[in-house]
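Reviewer comment 2.1 asked that we show a complete input and output for one of the modelled complexes. We chose the fe (ii) ion case, as it is the one discussed in the main text.
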Amino acid sequence: MSLLNNPLYTAALSCWSETDAHSKAKQTLALDLILGEPGAGSDFSRRLRPALDDPGRPSMPTLVDPRKLPRRGLGSVEGHAAFIHAICHIEFSAINLALDAALRFAGMPAEYYREWLEVAVDEARHFSLLAAHLGKLGYNYGDFVAHNGLWAVANQTSDDILARMALIPRVLEARGLDVTPAMIDRLHQHGDDEGAEILAIILDDEIRHVAVGSRWFLYLSRARGLDAAQTFQQLVSRELGPRATAALNIDARRAAGFSEAELDWLSGNGEDTR
Ligand SMILES: [Fe+2]
Ligand SMILES: [Fe+2]
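Response of the prediction step:
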């Protein structure tokens, strides 16, 4: 039987395909209700699944190479709005990435699908909070250009769930754990306490998202008989090049399931076991 007979799957697929950002967020938030129903049918593993191309996204914002993004300070309303817009775009992409993790990969336990759909609901909430905040500054999602970096990595990992778990939640989302505290301070300094509060909610939720990535990365490493720390190093080095050197948010990363060996290696101190 096809997965298209599963109501939770078809609802999630419709969120994934939706091209309007606000309807995508609204529909994804509504997945929470279906997930709350007993026996919501998050077992997506054993039935025939349709082949997936790319999730829906609006024609605006225009996506550009991250190096081509204009740099603006937070001093002007436009600069402030551009900063909020950039995070709003990350959250929009995160809705698609979480739905994609749930819909694209076969053969995982039911909790895998449920957990990624719950992440998608959180991301839709983050997007909506930031889009509303952007509205208060007089701008909409789509008013500035945005970067395409997240999708480049999603495409690189669309045929390997282990690489997806390593590189999207455990590298890109985990980077958010490192940089968000300074962004919260910056917003406070510029008098945007409400924006800072939204980022604090996001930071808290993102620890859980990275932990979901860690859990399934470990599960898959074990299932394939691989050493998790070594596999992580190999994937990060092969797919993303040299390690980032910026400071790590060690406490948040520990809470999100990074081992001491991984943290040492990411900080540039640990043993390279590749
Ligand atoms: Fe988020
Ligand atoms: Fe997230």
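Residues 91, 94, 123, 126, 202, 206 surround fe (ii) ion (ligand 1) (CB under 6 Å). We note this here for comparison with the apo prediction described in Section 3.2.
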